[in-house]
């Protein structure tokens, strides 16, 4: 195994932790791989068409709750702050257009015998025993803008569609396009994107508004989504689309 050469942190006062050094190396290699895959895609006849926007979108915000967005929690996701800021910008345009907004969090019923309905994922991830229904860990981050009447879907699986009423809410509203934000890109965001496609929705992911524990996983997953599931659309393009929706209503 190649030895890890100590590197300085951003402020040049302390060396990066070994895990941070490895994360940087993984990110560099993953970025190179994704760039090569993009070149391969462009050089072959396999052209992935865009699914495009429909006419009736909804915003689904995945798990921007304290457990994933606040330092100190086991699942804290670096980059969550930027994802929240981008999500808030997207939500402002969505609300101006009268577009449905749905939030999700993950939580389990708590009894004297522990968490009920906790899935294998919950048992696997450290700290998931804090995700009892009503616990502080499951609350949406206080800097996330939430308005009265907007849905909060409490899920127990990676996908926001699994064993929830999300699909019913979207279909009842006549939605044809699901725009996803939140965390984590390679986990619950991707799982929800796959099920969004399976439920018949055009699926859009806004890269500035999602984040992952490992940047390399974030980079790869966005490429994977763009070739198999839906479109990865920059924030500026997504907000411009919502502005067009507002103008047409």
TrEMBL record:
| Domain Isochorismatase-like intervals | 58-233
Q: Which Pfam families match?
A: Isochorismatase
Q: Which UniProt keywords apply?
A: Hydrolase
InterPro entries, per the entry: Isochorismatase-like_dom, Isochorismatase-like_hydrls, Isochorismatase-like_sf
Task: Give a GO molecular function annotation for the protein.
Answer: hydrolase activity
Give the signal sequence positions.
Answer: none
Class of this enzyme:
hydrolase
| Superkingdom, natural source | Bacteria
What is the E.C. number? 3.5.1.107
Annotated protein name in UniProt: Maleamate amidohydrolase
UniProt source species: Luteimicrobium xylanilyticum
> Which gene holds the coding sequence for this protein?
nicF
């Amino acid at each position: 195994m190649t030895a890890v050469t100590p590197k300085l942190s951003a402020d040049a006062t302390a060396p990066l932790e070994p895990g941070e050094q490895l994360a940087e190396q993984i990110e560099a290699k993953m970025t190179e791989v994704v760039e090569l895959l993009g070149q391969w895609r462009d050089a072959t006849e396999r052209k992935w068409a865009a699914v495009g926007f429909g006419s009736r979108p909804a915003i689904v915000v995945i798990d921007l709750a304290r457990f994933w967005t606040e330092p100190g929690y086991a699942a804290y996701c670096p980059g969550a702050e930027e994802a929240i800021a981008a999500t808030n910008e997207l939500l402002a345009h969505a609300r101006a257009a009268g577009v449905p907004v749905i939030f999700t969090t993950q939580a389990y019923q708590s009894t004297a015998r522990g968490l009920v309905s906790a899935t294998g994922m919950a048992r696997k991830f450290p700290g998931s025993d804090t995700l009892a229904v009503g616990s502080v860990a499951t609350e949406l981050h206080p800097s996330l803008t939430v308005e009265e009447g907007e849905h909060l879907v409490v899920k127990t699986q990676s996908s926001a569609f699994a064993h929830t009423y999300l699909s019913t809410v979207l279909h009842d509203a006549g939605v044809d396009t699901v725009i996803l934000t939140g965390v984590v890109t390679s986990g619950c965001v991707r799982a929800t994107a796959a099920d969004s496609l399976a439920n018949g929705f055009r699926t859009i992911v806004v890269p500035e508004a999602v984040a992952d524990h490992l940047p390399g996983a974030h980079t790869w997953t966005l490429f994977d989504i763009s070739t198999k599931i839906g479109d990865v659309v920059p924030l500026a393009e997504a907000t411009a689309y919502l502005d067009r929706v507002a103008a047409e209503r």
